[in-house]
Amino acid sequence: MKNFGKYLLIPLLITGIALGMTLVLTKEIFRAVPKTKFHSDKERKLLEKKILLLKQNPSIHSTPLSQDEYFLNSENCKACHGFDSANYANLDYSGTSINLFDDWESSMMALSAKDPLWRAKVSHEILVNPSHAATLQDKCTSCHAPMGRYTNYFHGQSPYLIDSLIIDTLGLDGVSCTSCHTIGTSGIGLSLGSSFSGQIPYDTLRKIYGPYSNPIIGPMQLYTGYTPTFSAHMSESRACSPCHTLITETADLNGTATGNTFVEQATYHEWLNSAFSADNVTCQNCHMPQIIDSIRIANGYLNIPPRSPFNKHKFHGANTFMLKLIKENKAKLNINVPDKNFDSTLAITKRNIRYNSVDLKIFQDSISSDTAFYRVRLINKVGHKFPSGYPSRRAVLQFVILGSNNDTLFKSGILNPDGSLANLSGSFQPHHQTINSTMQTQVYEMIMADVNGNRTTVLERADTMLKDNRLPPEGFMSNHLVYDTVKIYGGAETDPDFNLYAPGIEGSGRDYVHFHIPISSFTSTFNVYARLFYQTLPPEWLQEMFAYNSAAIDSFKLMFQGANKLPELVDADSLLNIVLAQFHPEFISNITVAPDPTTDGNTRILFEKETEISLIRVLDLNGKEIQLIRPTGKIKSIPVSLPEEKGTYILDIYTDSKRITKKIIRQ
């Protein structure tokens, strides 16, 4: 890099000539550019004057990189890629500004180094293992403050600590323009993990990689020292993989390394093991919404051609909770972002959760004399697990039955006002295939365990997984190359309704949760409601951290206590005005079970006529599967043998068109 000045000299000379020609040809270019409804002749003349001013006063632009630097602060990119006061560039067809800077600055990417939860969690991990303080901070800043941390490394200085970060404008810029667009291609992707866990392959060639071919080189090279360069990897998911795959080293309760590792998050690997990867639907396609409008992506240059398609830099996911908390505390956090930009990011994030995440539907299977049988189907619509990312995140399935007078007849999945889960016995809810009690709730989440097998939220203590029943994406397979990194744990892996189209056929990206509801106390008419809620930060996750005190933890605790903890609604469905008597004849007229009760455990299912049955399941009253029967062809009767243990069992009978449920007693 010592010869940087030499190889920059020739492009600078070429650029100077090009700029001179631009001044001469400005008016001709204006005539060639079609006018739009949002540009008057007066506005275009003002724009012409502004461009001339910029050409005559290069100091208005940013100062180029010095020879020993590799990154520039985002403010240096704002002049060209921020709001255009001349209303010429960075506008969509309607004339609305979609400039990169305003969209980015209110995203969690931009706020990553100032995120008060992240700083509190780093402090927590240090307090748990103080001898690891330097290593922990250096690892965490590699993704949350990459430009500051890697600049330190380029200058031969390490580790990079929070004390250094808080006085470093590059570090405080978070995941900024040049922290992404200078990522090289070497080692990115599935290459023995060499680029994962924050090992970002910066190539230090002072190139700005972008998705458009034949970029105009001169202006950016002159004013920043970077050379804009086309590279396909900027539109590929592998560009996101270094930070969205984090593998931590396990320490025991004394802080001693065990030699084991734990996958804290593997969103990139989840995507690899999905139909989205096979169809080349990338991270950018979903989290940087694409429009087909032709966009002039730089202010003040008439000769830069419009580009299409264009990816907005909103970087929206599901984290409305932290966006709202940061907005409400931005003065305390020294964040100078307009509320309108936060509001815009919050709005698109809420829409993303509500309409692009999970599809939920209720099915009524049958109603017997004392039990109503329902299924709730959830289909994951995203290209990775839902929820994904940081392991605090969870989705809670709520199932409520109300009587005709709005009296509650059954409820599961109720959240307290502070966001905690009601009726929680133990440290977490296990995965449920069947729910028949108000004490049971289906929660989709990752639960980490320490070396003793106890639940932990201390990342460095994470040793094994107690549970990971987060909804997998469509196409998710247990025989995939990366399945060992993104396994299903804790009961969901043996659930015959989880990620299965049919027995043995994986990749559905869905789950069916069965509800067996006692109805002896029900009124004749009732309503059934199911809702899925998303939570970024459940209060249960913070209990371990809030047991410690530090400036960062105490500050975040106050913010959290004052925050609105209402969860985000993902999807909902309902069945209304259900009348009990309507369903008895339909489901008992053509199928009988005899003998019932049975003394020896042997009985038969009898059909009124030959019927094609796809599956019969024998369950106990807790919903545990005892036996699985797969008849072949059309049948009129089939024998069933119940277990030795006396009691009541459920026969779950699936035809092509419906599911029929029967109870049988072994005396």
In short:
This protein is of the alpha+beta class and 667 residues long.
Write a structural description.
With 667 residues, this protein is an alpha+beta fold. Helix content is 27%, strand content 26%. The chain is built from 19 helices and 25 strands. Helix 1 crosses helix 11 (218-224) and helix 15 (320-328) packs antiparallel against helix 16 (339-356). It is elongated. Mean pLDDT is 87; it is low at 1-39 and 582-589.
The count of helical stretches stands at 19
Shape descriptor reads elongated
Say what oligomer this is. single chain
β content, as a range? 25-35%
Features:
elongated, disordered N terminus, 27% helix, five-stranded mixed β-sheet, 667 residues, 25 strands, six-stranded antiparallel β-sheet, alpha+beta
Q: Can you lay out the helices and strands and say which pair or pack?
A:
Blueprint: H1 4-32, H2 41-56, H3 75-81, H4 100-105, H5 116-128, H6 133-144, H7 146-154, H8 162-165, H9 169-172, H10 177-181, E1 207-210, H11 218-224, E2 227-230, E3 245-251, E4 257-266, H12 267-272, H13 275-278, H14 283-287, E5 290-291, E6 310-311, H15 320-328, H16 339-356, E7 358-367, E8 371-380, E9 394-403, E10 408-412, E11 434-435, E12 442-444, E13 446-449, E14 455-456, E15 464-468, E16 498-502, E17 505-518, E18 525-535, H17 539-546, H18 551-561, E19 568-579, H19 584-588, E20 591-594, E21 602-620, E22 625-629, E23 634-641, E24 647-655, E25 659-666
Parallel strand pairs: 1-2, 11-17
Antiparallel strand pairs: 3-4, 5-6, 7-8, 8-17, 9-10, 9-12, 9-18, 13-14, 13-15, 16-17, 18-19, 20-21, 21-22, 21-23, 21-24, 24-25
Helix pairs in contact: 1-2, 1-11, 5-6, 5-18, 6-7, 15-16
